[in-house]
Amino acid sequence: MALTINKIENWCDSVIDLSEFLVGHTNNIICKVALGRTYSGMKFKDLLDRFMEVLGVFSFGNYIPRLAWIDRLSGLEDRARKVAQYFDEFLEGVVEEHIIK
Q1: What are the residues whose beta carbons fall under 8 Å from the beta carbon of 29, sequence distance 6 or more?
Q2: What is the pTM of this model?
């Protein structure tokens, strides 16, 4: 909490987007606890944004299996597959980092 207050104090001369700051800070805390270090680069943020975008899309196939073709036609399946592949590569890198250390 002290680190958060210090960061906000350092930015007191300018306008702070508090929602973006808190989201970034929350991501850093979760990464530190779950993965052992923070991943605050743009690549990680982009990965999380893509993941949240795919999670927010209604999937017809999940509720009406006969309409799963709509998910394929809309490109939802391909986007979900790509995001899953990117997450897999990211987590493989995290595991390899832990093995090397």
Answers
A1: none
A2: 0.70
